[in-house]
Amino acid sequence: MFKNISIGQYIPGNSAVHNLDPRIKIIITFIFIASLFIITRFTGYIFILAYIYIVVQISKVPFSYVLKGLKPIIIILLLTVGLNMFFTPGGITIFMLGPLKVTTSGLRLAGFMALRLIFLIIGTSLLTLTTSPISLTDGIEHLLNPFKKIGIPAHELAMMMTIALRFIPTLIEETDKIMKAQMARGADFESGNLIKRAKNLIPLLVPLFISAFRRADELAIAMESRCYKGGENRTRMKQLHIENRDYIALVITIFMVAVLVWNRFWKW
Amino acid sequence: MSIKVENVSYIYNEGTPFETHALKNINFSINDKEFVGIIGHTGSGKSTLIQQLNGLLKPTSGDIYINGKKITDKNINLRDIRKEVGLVFQYPEYQLFEETIFKDIAFGPTNLNLDQEDIKERVYEAMDIVGLSRDLEDKSPFEVSGGQRRRIAIAGVLSMRPKVLILDEPTAGLDPRGRDEILMRIKKIHEKYTMITILVSHSMEDIAKYADKIIVMNNGEIAVSGTPREIFRQVDLLESIGLGIPQITYLARQLKNKGIEIPEDVLTVEEAKEYIARYLRGVHNV
Fold first, then answer.
1. What is the ipTM score, two decimals?
2. Contact, B51 vs B41, CB < 8 A?
3. Following CA atoms B148, B150, B152, B154 in sequence, which dihedral angle do they give, to the nearest 10 degrees?
4. Do B92 and A180 count as a contact with CB atoms less than 8 A apart?
5. Is B207 within 8 Å of B199 (Cβ atoms)?
6. Chain B residues lying within 8 Å of A3, measured CB to CB
7. pLDDT of A87-120, one tens digit each?
8. What is the dihedral of CA A14, A15, A18, A23, to 10 degrees?
9. How do strand B85-88 and strand B3-12 relate by DSSP bridges?
10. Strand pairing of B61-66 and B35-40?
11. What beta strand segments (E) does A30-154 contain?
12. Which residues 49-88 on chain B approach chain A with CB closer than 8 angstroms?
């Protein structure tokens, strides 16, 4: 039943994309997101598509996985397309549906927004698909470091994220186990109306909460007994290094942004 | 009651990069009243296998028959199967959730839609079997000791009066006394209710002491199966998959190598004591 959950949907690999420094990857992702908003012509998306295509090819992530990221936003996508299509004034009216008018500029905007959303999701899911949650939080911690001065607890935030991510699979496994144990005792999680179903979840939720608290307690003791004390002077086993390939990736991305800017302002 | 497993294979996460073959072409059958031990390493597929037997997992291919009924059919009522096949998971005390011990043990029978009197009778019976005193019934399951919590969880399955009882490592994490006690009770339940009992364990000693038949799992396959004596004769095979035989059996083999008259398939300490005493008497009488 939990086969389709893809939080921290990391797919292990050893490609150039996987091996990029997480900090650079996060920065590149932000640049990529920003670049989507530079585009004002459809031709701009050709470059974005080419860029994404190359990244996916290098990373060797199956394309189906990249597209899977779109599933949860399908409703938002349809809503955006619908609203833009029907409520954009101007242009030539193509056809009318009662008070609703579909115009050429409406269609154009709808297509535009849809593409922007799709690439936004694909770009960010490529980041999580090729970066393990641990190195992702590592990267975030480093990027947040300069903000420590204004009181942002970068290390603590990163540690909290790491622990949360670390325990997602554990809790899913635990849920699965308790569910099976209760099903073996005749519990039913699948039938009945909403209220009945919610009630039926009690035999699952109570043991799950108890074990989550137990785990948290045990983890805290284990960390303290190894003298864990956040932030200051903590060294790490995996040092992050920025290498040539990171610069190359960054340069290629900036080049793409330059092409997009050129595409936007160049008079054809 | 009988169980028949035919060509069962099971694949986790089929069609993803995380695909793993947990079971490969498993075949065995269990007859009425048998006490079967399943032994194997962590990850050998034991737990996956037993979950197939009450329909919690469906085999990727192959069929399972419980008492001649094919439970791998699409439109079978799984609740009926789970009523017959009781499964006690590893660390079952983590599944407890009710306010009182009585209510928790009654969870299974309540799901069977029995009337109050019947439920009461079953709960008390189950508490007696596992050795829980009846004054505990109104206590919270969270305020008693770990060993008692485990008994409550086992009682919770027994109260459904299954005809097949499967226990996954029922003694994990218990002290030696708690372990012996639980196993003794299981043996008694097995004899009293003449059910099929399947005990999953990685302790050769426990399995040797109680099981009529042993199935040794390795890498998702049955490495060997048979009576304890048949199994323990194949020391090399067992050692090659990292299992070994009970220490007392090792001792008997060593004694035999030294020329002492003792069968090398001795299974329990009591048995060995008998033979050694007999041998010593023989020596002194000469």
1. 0.84
2. no
3. -140
4. no
5. yes
6. 13
7. 887 777 777 777 777 888 888 889 989 999 999 9
8. 130
9. unpaired
10. unpaired
11. 93-97, 100-103
12. 51, 54, 56, 79, 82-83, 86-87
Q: Are A184 and B94 an interchain contact pair (Cβ–Cβ within 8 Å)? A: no
Chain B positions in Cβ-Cβ contact with residue A12 (cut-off 8 Å): 17
Enumerate the domain spans of chain A: 1-131+238-268
Helix-strand-coil split of chain A, %, nearest 5: 70, 5, 25
Q: Select from B97, B98, B159, B168 the residue whose CB has the most chain A CBs within 10 Å, as the one to mutate to test that interface.
A: B97
Instruction: From A208, A165, A176, select the one nearest A7 (Cα to Cα).
Output: A165
Say how many CB pairs under 8 Å bridge A and B: 60
B110 to chain A: closest CA residue: A186
Residues in chain A: 268
Distance CA A223, CA A216 (A): 10
- Determine the Cα–Cα distance for residues A245 and A24; give it in Å rounded to an integer: 10
Nearest to B211, CA basis, from B228, B226, B225: B228
Alpha carbon B20 to its chain centroid, in Å, reads: 25
Q: Where are the domains of chain B?
A: 246-286
φ, ψ at A190 (rounded to 5°)? -110, -15
pLDDT at res. A194: 86
pLDDT attached to residue B79:
83
Residue reference for tokens 């785990």: A215
With beta carbons under 8 A apart, name residues in chain B contacting A188: 79, 111
Does A203 contact B at CB distance below 8 Å?
Answer: yes
Beta bridge partners of A93: A103
* In A63-104, beta strands by DSSP E: 93-97, 100-103
What pLDDT, on a 0 to 100 scale, did the predictor assign at position B220?
A: 92
Question: Residues of chain A whose pLDDT is less than 50?
Answer: 1-7
From chain A, pick out residues whose CB is under 8 angstroms from the CB of B157: 184-185
Which of B56, B97, B112 lies at the smallest CB-CB distance from A203?
B97
Burial class (CB in 10 A: 0-12, 13-18, 19+), B107: buried
Which of B54, B94, B112 shows the shortest C-beta gap to A184?
Answer: B54
CA distance linking residue B230 with residue B160, whole number of Å: 35
Number of H helices, E strands in chain B: 11, 10
For the record, the structure tokens of A113 come out as 């927004």
